[in-house]
Write a structure and sequence with these properties.
Blueprint: H1 3-12, H2 18-28, H3 32-43, H4 48-52, E1 54-57, E2 60-63, H5 76-86, E3 91-95, H6 101-109, E4 114-119, H7 122-130, E5 134-137, E6 152-157, H8 172-177, H9 191-203, E7 204-213, H10 219-228, E8 231-238, E9 244-251
Parallel strand pairs: 3-4, 3-6, 4-5, 6-7
Antiparallel strand pairs: 1-2, 7-9, 8-9
The chain binds S-adenosylmethionine.
S-adenosylmethionine binds near residues 102, 119 and 124.
């Protein structure tokens, strides 16, 4: 199939970036029959990155294995802030690292820093390893070595944070293919976010930061919880359209925990 025919086919099926996708599929295929099979997978709604095996994130190419959460452009603002903070930090941990995209971007920005990731999912662990990330498998920060206690300067995370009763609003490609475990953060969406904040108190240096992606309406409740755990809330991260994308917290010390 030629580029124009493929772009027209995808556009006709409602793919908004039809030309870009056609280019990526043609570049990734090994033969005409391979292309035909890739196109039918895409038309069925499978994420493009699972088919081509890669995605661009923060201007670098990230390898993606099937079943692994595909990093989103909406996370790039959080990563830009993480890059600013990481300039003065020796040890960085990307919790719920998925493909390892955030950890990979940070380690390329600071080759002399120690940047690690962790995730509970075996496919994610394999994928992050392919992306060159030092990665640990387990539940949130329990996966990290005890030797990191009191040494981390930045915890960055895109945890599952979609409230359970909002899962039905996810786009169909997401809902049909990606694991609910990558999205669902419990009833109010904050189960993982709160646990990471609590666990961080063992790992952070005083003055260390937590940067976390959040959804609409979640910042106030999380900031209040974080303050009770000994953090100061530095503010919300907003995108160009003013939508909430995350929160920035500074760890004062466990001794300042309230309650
Ligand atoms: C929304 S994805 C974010 C992935 C990656 N940080 C990114 O932005 O592309 C959430 C990730 O959390 C992982 N996850 C879910 N439950 C977890 C748990 N209990 N412990 C560690 N990771 C978990 C999932 O496997 C998934 O990779």
């Amino acid at each position: 199939m030629q580029f124009k025919d493929l772009a027209d086919l995808l556009a006709g099926q409602g793919f908004v970036a039809a030309e870009d996708e056609a280019q990526e599929l043609i570049a990734a295929c090994a033969s005409p029959s391979d292309l035909a099979s890739m196109v039918s997978r895409r038309l069925a709604g499978e994420p493009l990155a699972w088919i081509t095996g890669k995605v661009r994130f923060c201007d670098i190419e990230i390898r993606i294995l099937p079943q692994v959460y595909v990093p989103r452009w909406q996370t790039e603002g959080l990563v830009r802030r993480a890059i600013e903070i990481a300039a003065s930090v020796n040890l960085v941990a990307d919790i719920c690292t998925g493909s390892g995209a955030i950890a990979r971007v940070l380690s390329l920005a600071y080759p002399n820093s120690h940047v690690v990731g962790c995730d509970s999912d075996a496919n994610a662990i394999e994928c992050a390893g392919l992306n060159g990330v030092e990665v640990y498998q387990g539940h949130l920060m329990e996966a990290l070595p005890g030797s990191f206690h009191g040494r981390i300067g930045l915890v960055v995370s895109v945890p599952p944070y979609v409230p359970a009763d909002h899962l039905r609003f996810l786009p169909s490609g997401t809902a049909d293919y990606e694991s609910v475990g990558a999205y669902c953060g419990g009833e109010d969406g904050l189960d993982f976010a709160k646990e990471i904040i609590s666990q961080s108190t063992r790992f952070l240096i005083p003055g260390g930061k937590v940067l976390m992606e959040l959804g609409h309406g979640q910042a106030d409740a999380l900031a209040e919880f974080a303050m009770s755990e000994g953090f100061r809330c530095e503010g919300e991260l907003l995108d160009d359209e003013g939508d909430l994308r995350g929160i920035e917290l500074t760890f004062r010390s466990s001794a300042t925990k309230s309650g």
